[in-house]
């Protein structure tokens, strides 16, 4: 599952980078929790949690059905 999540994150990175941010995969747990680190403009953006839940998490769950949630560490 981790390989699939890494691939999906690489697919969404260009969108985040276009706005001055980035995302880094930290871990994928057996229970389907994806741990990420937000970088650049995303790290301090007041809308980062919306981006995470309605953008990143939605995309990852669509691409990798085993993903249950995405959290920032």
Main sheet specs: 3 strands, mixed
Number of strands: 3
CATH-defined superfamily: Fe-S cluster assembly (FSCA)
At CATH level 2, the architecture is 2-Layer Sandwich
Rg estimate, integer Å: 11 Å
Percent in helix = 40-55%
Strand content: 25-35%
Judging from the principal axes of the Cα atoms, what is the shape? globular
Number of domains: 1
N-to-C order of helices and strands: HEEHHE
Q: Low-confidence spans: pLDDT under 50, at least 5 residues?
A: none
Structural class: alpha+beta
First-to-last CA distance: 19 Å
- CATH hierarchy, class: Alpha Beta
How many H/I helical runs?
3
CATH topology name? GMP Synthetase, Chain A, domain 3
How confident is the prediction overall: mean pLDDT? Answer: 91
Describe the strand arrangement of the main beta sheet, using strand numbers: 1-2-3
Compose a concise summary of this entry.
By secondary structure, this protein is of the alpha+beta class.
Describe how the helices and strands are arranged.
Layout: H1 2-18, E1 21-28, E2 33-40, H2 41-44, H3 48-63, E3 69-72
Parallel strand pairs: 2-3
Antiparallel strand pairs: 1-2
Tell me what you see in this structure:
It is a single chain. This protein is an alpha+beta fold and 73 residues long. It has a single domain, classed as Fe-S cluster assembly (FSCA) (GMP Synthetase, Chain A, domain 3, 2-Layer Sandwich). 51% of the residues lie in helices and 27% in strands. The protein contains three helices and three strands. The protein has a three-stranded mixed sheet with strand order 1-2-3. A hairpin with a 4-residue loop joins strand 1 (21-28) and strand 2. Helix 1 packs across helix 3. The chain is globular, with a radius of gyration of 11 Å. The mean pLDDT is 91.
């Amino acid at each position: 599952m981790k390989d699939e999540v890494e691939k999906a994150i690489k697919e969404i990175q260009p969108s985040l980078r276009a706005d001055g941010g980035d995302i880094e995969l930290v871990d994928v747990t057996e229970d389907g929790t994806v741990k990420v680190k937000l970088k650049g403009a995303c790290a301090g953006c007041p809308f980062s949690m919306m981006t995470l839940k309605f953008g990143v998490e939605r995309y990852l769950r669509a691409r990798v059905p085993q993903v249950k949630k995405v959290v920032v560490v």
